[in-house]
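$ ./design --mode recover --in tokens.txt
reading tokens...
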């Protein structure tokens, strides 16, 4: 596999009042590591940088224990293994509820139940081959949002199914960190998990300028941005087989798009919609998807 789009977390927080005080020097804290299996970093410039960083790391670790397929005993890993999860954590229910809303709005193009397909394609990629048609057909039998039942006290899956939060998890983590820092009284923060969440604007009062990898930039204030690219991660040595799988065919997106950027009030929503949009065959179909949600815009579709 190859990954061509850098994913990281960069959180910078500066209180305008403190940073403008004569002689006030805000200590910086820089951390790098992993979050949901992706490269992560935190950069904070704030008088309480050390304490804020530790709060963020504790929250990332807590969310990993709920949402990450890279941890065998996470909530989602236990759900995939047992097909039932009693007393599910709020965050898993919340993330899946957002996923379900996007699934409905996109006519099923966004579907977290594609994990059996992803596992098939990943295994075939490791063997330097592509799955055969009968293998794809078999995996497709385990795909379908109608096999997921969400209740406050229990989540169940149809036997043989499995979920992945690729396509929404990075954005959801950004939203949760934003909520945590807001409770701590912080403002004017930019959170970047590969999907971006702006809390307010810059400390000088201007919006956050965020560059698009396709070129140009947009200004964000109290808003999120997510970008998806069908070939952002590839499953073959030649870089032609993308990671966004079509739940209808079981195959990688035969997309007409190179990259799609979506802005929304929440990063999880922008993340999921940008992923689904890569499977749309024209701009009208994308516009119909986002029309189901207030405050969502397509910032780039190339």
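writing sequence...
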């Amino acid at each position: 596999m190859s990954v061509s789009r850098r994913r990281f977390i960069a959180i910078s927080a500066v209180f305008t009042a403190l940073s403008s005080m004569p002689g006030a020097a805000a200590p910086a804290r820089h951390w790098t590591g992993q979050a949901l299996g992706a490269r992560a970093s935190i950069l904070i410039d704030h008088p309480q940088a050390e304490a804020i960083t530790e709060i963020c790391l504790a929250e990332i670790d807590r969310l990993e224990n709920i949402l990450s397929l890279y941890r065998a005993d996470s909530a989602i890993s236990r759900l995939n293994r047992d097909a039932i999860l009693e007393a599910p954590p709020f965050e898993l229910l919340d993330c899946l509820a957002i996923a379900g809303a996007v699934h409905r709005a996109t006519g099923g193009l966004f579907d977290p139940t594609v994990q059996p397909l992803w596992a098939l394609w990943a295994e075939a990629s490791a063997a330097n081959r592509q799955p055969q048609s009968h293998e794809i057909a078999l995996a497709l039998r385990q795909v379908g949002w109608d096999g997921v039942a969400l209740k406050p006290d229990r989540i169940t899956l149809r036997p043989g199914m499995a979920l992945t939060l690729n396509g929404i998890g990075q954005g959801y983590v950004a939203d949760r960190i934003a909520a945590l820092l807001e409770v701590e009284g912080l403002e004017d923060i930019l959170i970047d998990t590969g999907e971006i969440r702006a809390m307010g604007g810059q400390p000088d009062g201007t919006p956050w300028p965020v560059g698009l990898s396709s070129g140009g930039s947009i200004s964000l204030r109290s808003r999120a941005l997510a970008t998806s690219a069908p070939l952002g991660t590839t499953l073959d040595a030649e870089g032609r087989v993308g990671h966004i799988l079509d739940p209808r065919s079981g195959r990688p997106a035969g997309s007409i798009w190179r990259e799609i950027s979506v802005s929304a009030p929440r990063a999880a929503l922008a993340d999921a919609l940008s992923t689904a949009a890569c499977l749309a065959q024209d701009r009208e179909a994308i516009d119909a998807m986002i029309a189901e949600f207030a405050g969502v815009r397509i910032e780039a579709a190339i």
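exit 0
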